[in-house]
Amino acid sequence: MNEIEISTEFIKLDSFLKWVGVASLGSEAKFLIQEGEVKVNGEVCTQRGKKLRVNDVIEIQQEKFKII
Thinking of the domain 2-67, which architecture would CATH place it in? Predict the structure, then answer.
């Protein structure tokens, strides 16, 4: 599992996907989220503006990321 440190209170899901390199464009992040390919804390998340906070676990394309 990859641990990703954030220096703010939260980061939005679409921005997170771009930040870790899963998506290169916002439109690509939006597509992945809308297609149900992203899980947050074990549940499919289709909200691209979902606020991710410390200890959230994001799963996409057989990769897991934990926010620290």
Answer: Roll (3.10)
